[in-house]
Amino acid sequence: MGQFEDHIKQSKSNLQFLSLVDQNIDNYWDWKVTVCFYTAVHLINAHIVKRSKANYLSHNKVDEFINPFSQFSPSKLDNPTYLAYQKLSNLSRRSRYLVHEDINKKTPTDIVDAQATYSKHYSRAVKYLEIIIDYVCAEHKQSISATNIKCIDLNNTKLKYFNIRS
Q: Mind listing the pLDDT tens digit for each residue in 39-97?
């Protein structure tokens, strides 16, 4: 069973991997978005383990555990963090399965527009991940060093957990 520290360690490893990939490859935005999402998965799982001792949950169960709109959620997130996680999850699904899902309807829509992932999607993924990292670090008194990345759509953007290189 993954402990809190194991999930934090894995999220840091994923961030190191993201930085290495980013230094050596200028595109493959779909994979970069996916790495951002799985970094968030480990951060959210660390939060869930710390709050409720639950582990190895499906994506649907994770949603039940962190949903701030449900009175029965044992590991509720605040609203901005929950929405960031939902949006990052949708970006990752779009990148991995070439589908676009309406966050409210949870049904595939407009598959033609969802065929490619670009730098703008990676930039959104990084911004959503920034929110999640900030929440978990503040909530659980953790420290995560800034990750060096390169994304033209993030130039002139100030982030706490990401150093943007030109």
A: 999 999 999 999 998 887 899 999 999 999 999 999 999 999 999 999 999 999 988 77
pTM of the predicted protein model:
0.89
Report the CATH number at residue 104. Answer: 1.20.120.330
pLDDT category at 120 given cuts 50, 70, 90 is very high
Per the structure, the count of domains in the chain is 1
Strand partners, 163: 148
| Cα(7)–Cα(31) distance, integer angstroms | 20
Residue range(s) defining the domain that contains residue 62: 4-165
Could you tell me if 88 and 139 are in contact, meaning their C-beta atoms sit under 8 angstroms apart? no
